[in-house]
Amino acid sequence: GDAGGGSGGSSPFYVDSDGLQRQIDELASFSDSPVPSVTRVLYSDKDVQARRYIKGIMNQLGLSIREDAVGNIFGRWEGSEAGLGAVATGSHVDAIPFSGKYDGVVGVLGALEAISMLKRSGFQPKRSLEVIMFTSEEPTRFGISCLGSRLMAGSEELARSLKETVDNQNVSFFDAADSAGYKMHPEELHNVFLKKDDYFAFVELHIEQGPILEKEGIKIGVVTAIAAPASIKVEFEGNGGHAGAVLMPARNDAGLAAAELALAVEKHVLESGSIDTVGTVGILQLHPGAINSIPSKSHVEIDVRDIDEKRRNNVIEKVHQSAIEISKNRGVLLSEFKIINQDPPALSDKSVISAMEFAAKQLNLEYKLMISRAYHDSLFMARISPMGMIFIPCYKGYSHKPEEYASPEDMANGVKVLALAMARLSLQ
Ligand code: HGY
Ligand code: MN
Ligand code: MN
Ligand code: MN
Fold first, then answer.
1. Does 74 sit in the ligand 1 pocket, CB within 6 Å?
2. Cα of 24 to ligand 1 centre, how many Å?
3. What pLDDT digit, counting tens, does each position of 294-337 carry?
4. How far apart are alpha carbons 89 and 130 in whole angstroms?
5. Half-sphere exposure of 13 toward its Cβ, with a 13 Å CA cutoff?
6. Distance 9 CA to ligand 2 centre (A)
7. How far, in Å, is the centroid of ligand 3 from the Cα of 320?
8. Which of 66, 77, 367, 395 has the fewest CB atoms below 10 angstroms from its CB?
9. Ligand 1 within 6 A of 374 CB?
């Protein structure tokens, strides 16, 4: 346990840090990559094991559990006025390849520990409290981020596009869902949509995934806004051919087109005029991928973000122009330039911010108002509920890599701020 002593805890308001760490380590063992990395992709066997594990904890806490068509999991603690909009919290447990064991997980297991702590302390909720495990926040398998929360927020476009979505093994979304136990008729996707007043507030606990809190020695981040993310898929096609026999003037190399586009992304981002614009080419695949064969096809995936939506959209426009220019200059076909998502930023709600500030003050924890450069399910929950996020420091800001780490003390602080903020919102 934390300052409150061991698991017995002198004050009822203690966090079972040892238990939480054990759960984090146990969950991390459901992974398709070697320790210390974690890989847990939507609807994989490891994902199914993780889901079973989370539902087991919800069960132990006496929460009533429901799952929607795509596998968003809801654990609810009925309040005395159960008809009122509930106070929800939650995050994700899917993990991109070779990543860490805290991204998302702290906001699910930590939220369940917050519920456990409130129960131990004898708290009686007025508005029901609910922990949500969003079915897939990472874009890994089907290329769309925040799949579960985007649907909950009512994305008709996503409901439609999922009907023809396949992963890179050509497995359809519905077959993959079915293999994980979520057999659904395409029309059921609409049942995932939530109504505006389902939730009175939504608060997500998450590691900062940046270095600021640790560097400034501040214990808690109170998020005021989430940056605007976008992702683009690009394909180039050339004639390919023999790496020895085709002379340079005769080539139209799809691989070099991709390489030039990646550098163009960096150039357009850097010339945006703001340090807040970021751009990444995290996927660049060449076909056929043989040392002595000129790439006849290339597949590029681009991630562009900014806290200013217009500035971000301006970069996307320039990247598109560059892709067209590169295809002309190199005589390759720009066979695809597809914007997968181009989301607006989200602002946290004043009332949720004040609940988080109240909690941090009550706990005597110094906090900092800040923006989230990473996106989260909160970005979409903000479309149907007043939203807020609580950040805790993480080691050197590392995330999306195995060195990701949050200390038991920092996690305990986050859990306590979450518990107090939810309790306050529940009684409003
Ligand atoms: O990429 C992100 O911002 C999130 O951590 N998936
Ligand atoms: Mn992530
Ligand atoms: Mn995350
Ligand atoms: Mn995220």
1. no
2. 19
3. 999 999 999 999 999 999 999 999 999 999 999 999 999 999 99
4. 6
5. 13
6. 33
7. 28
8. 66
9. yes
